[in-house]
Amino acid sequence: MGGTGRWKGIRHRSTRTPGPGPAGLGHRTAAAPGPHRDRLRRRFPAGRGGGPAAPPWPIALPVVVPGSQNRPVITKETGTDPFHEHRRLLFATAYRMLGSVTDAEDIVQDAWLTWHKADRSEVRHPKAYLVRTVTNLSLNRLTSARATREEYVGPWLPEPLLTAPDAAQEQELAESVSTAMLVVLETLTPVERAVFVLREVFGYSHAEIADVLDRPEPTVRQISHRARRHVQDRRTLYDSDAAQREQVTARFMKACAGGDLNAVLELLAPDVTAWSDGGGKVSAAIRPLYGPDHVGRWLVGIVKKPAMTDVRMTPAVINGELGLLALAGDIPIASVTYDLEGGLLRNIRFQINPDKLAGLRR
Asked: How would you label 170-199 residue by residue, b for 16+ Cβ within 10 Å and e otherwise?
């Protein structure tokens, strides 16, 4: 299975099953977690510190397939269309690669078109073919996106994604899609990110990844080691107690809604930092805010604006963690995600760019 430059197909591990897993993140069978699950927990432990259009699908809702009048491709082995069977895995891969719901959906659409045009007699392993297609399309998109992000107005944050409440049942998969992790993945090169996602999140072997990327296996091993060490050096583990997070979220939401500066300050860590991503489309802080006083006063100032009168905040599971969703009527206008340390908010990320809220309208 070495990287020979010719596609052989990936042997996806038997302990993983495609389809509607928690939050569409891709999942494993509960009965057979496998050695990779333990390995990933050791590395990133939980706890503190031209054809038919591609069918989009809600991540945490029942699948809706527009254009279903298009006849799907049926395989003799399963009687189902492999693309439909694996589409959640494909989106999960693209999203972790790009940190963008919109771009991930575009990639899956492009993969669908490629699959639609492919000579099926040459495809021995459909899932492997599709994963390779999505990975390489994502690499191309990520490389071109780097130049665009250099000109981005203000802080760049990943696009938020509503996920199912039970995503915590797969702790390491929820961790891999958290906003904090996606921010860290932005510091990797495109190839490092691809290797990290395939290896550390989905458990592919180095040989399998070598086939995906058409690179020698020893090179992939080196890239994997470098990417893993890079993430470990930059990823801080924070509190993950669900009950505590629910309690702090309720207090934070109440304090913000009431414009109570003292109550807000009580919830902020001494070294709290806040980022707001408006992308130049809406008013936002173009630089990070540091310290409880600056962050607290900025927050209270925002909620006291007349434009916020009819906006309501509600708890929501965003990128695998409980956060806050701001709604104007039934329309999402912002998301708030954060890290907890010692029961206090340390890193707060506000996504208010209207072009990056597609993952909240699900």
From this structure: bbbbbbbbbbbbbbbbbebebbbbbbbbbb
**Angstrom distance (rounded) from CA 136 to CA 139:** 5
Q: Are 284 and 350 in contact (CB under 8 A)?
A: yes
Whole-number Å distance between alpha carbons of 92 and 23: 9
Q: Which one-letter DSSP state was computed for residue 162?
A: B
List, in sequence order, the alpha helices (H) in 69-100.
82-98
Cα distance between residue 99 and residue 115, in whole Å? 23
- State mean pLDDT over 38-45: 41
Predicted confidence at residue 139, as pLDDT, reads: 94
Q: Pairing relation of β-strands 331-341 and 321-328?
A: antiparallel
Share of the chain above pLDDT 70, in %: 74
What separation in angstroms does the CA of 21 have from each of 16, 38, 172, 201, 349? 10, 19, 13, 14, 26
pLDDT of residue 289: 96
Closest to 351 in 3D by CA, of 294, 287, 279:
279
d(CA 194, CA 96): 9
**Which residue reads 């977690």 in tokens?**
33
Interval 172-193: pLDDT, tens: 556 678 898 999 999 999 999 9
- For residues 254 and 219, give the distance between their C-alpha atoms in angstroms, rounded to a whole number: 52
Using CA atoms, how far apart are residues 109 and 87, in angstroms rounded to an integer? Answer: 10
Asked if pLDDT for residue 141 goes beyond 90, the answer is yes
Are residues 241 and 49 in contact, defined by beta-carbon separation less than 8 angstroms?
no
- Residue with structure tokens 């991540």? 59
- 5-19, 143-157, 187-201, 347-361: least confident range: 5-19
| pTM for this model (two decimals) | 0.75
Residue where the block lists tokens 């510190």: 49
